[in-house]
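User: quick one - fold this with FE2/S2 (inorganic) cluster bound?
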Amino acid sequence: MDMRNELLRNLKNRKPGYGLEQAFYSDPDYYRLDMENIFYRDWLFIGHDCEVTKPGNFFTVQVGDYPVVIVRDRQGQIRAFHNSCRHRGSRVCAAERGTSAKLVCPYHQWTYELDGRLLFARQMGDDFDPSQHSLKPVHCESVGGYIFICLAQNPTDFSATRALIEPYLAPHKLTDTKVAYQSTIVEKGNWKLVWENNRECYHCVANHPELCKTFPEAPSVTGVQGAGDDPEIAEHWQRCEAAGLPSTFRMSDDGQYRATRVPLLRDSESYTMTGRRAVGKQLSDIVNEKRIGSLLLFHYPTTWNHILGDHAISFRVLPLGPDETQVTTKWLVHKDAVEGVDYNLEELTHVWTETNDQDRRIVEENAFGIRSPAYEPGPYSTEHEGGVLQFLEWYCRFMEERLTGGDTRLSKVA
Ligand code: FES
Ligand SMILES: [Fe+2]
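Assistant: Sure. Structure tokens for the protein plus FE2/S2 (inorganic) cluster:
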């Protein structure tokens, strides 16, 4: 049986409320289908506007087989291109980030404008037409300081995503921030295990002593039920909304993304060991309300986020292989905040550096156990693991739709 049908059959036969079969977490063919049908076709959070503030600023990223470069052009627009030279295909930008007046391929110096046009190719003959050899564009949208790209030639409409998340992000003015610190770790586990672990806090009390000082593990906070019937959360939403901060729980109809604002424990204001702010200069000069808790935002398959009063933390998930996933964390602070004056890097990053490492170990142990021939999917806790069930429901429905929805050939991908 071909892999597509096998995967589909496995999706259909899945036991509701249980984990997935082993192949979903380890099989290279299943991984390839995940990449082709999700990562190469959907909108992916990739970085922040504040990482490319000036024309010529760029950063690069690898999504599966696709190297991509994101650049701010001369008109101030953020653009994304396939990072593959139109001459012989070399990577045009090899650095992780940088600034360049033009994009010059290091191999034979073909030179591209920041908008992708080929400006110069030495001695290619009279009949060579540079206009036919621009860098190939990648769809790119920026919303509330977040850059999303889509590798598909015909991407799905981004406007619904924009409409839901923009009001939540707007007051935090994340375009006026800078990355105070970033870390990239590799977790030896399938990307779905990284997400499953992220979507519940059932594991928090036993594994995250630092995070548990401030972040509530209650399923009404971390889950996907809406939580309006939790009086503490209802009160929090009311207070924040009165201060002009959209806060109530909202999820897209297809379950792919969600925004909600939750209180932290005991009036904590930030993810620090004391619960006090890590950054003296507030993130946004229009958010003056104290104790706004954390704006939680996820967008499958690449990002979850925490936006606080003093800083914001974004997480980017990119698969590297069937059992390897890269997780990049960025700590954003106000662009004028000064290290050593307004914040101390160790204090700012301590809780999530520890938490990430703890989660890495959890995911790796999980992956280890799942690779055992003795593994069989077990039941999730409906009370604590509603978020995991929701993630899997999204994944299964999404894959089923893509695999049965007619034309899913790779030729649809740029
Ligand atoms: S491959 Fe880029 S200039 Fe030759
Ligand atoms: Fe965790």
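One thing worth noting: Residues 172 and 284 are 5 Å apart (CA to CA).
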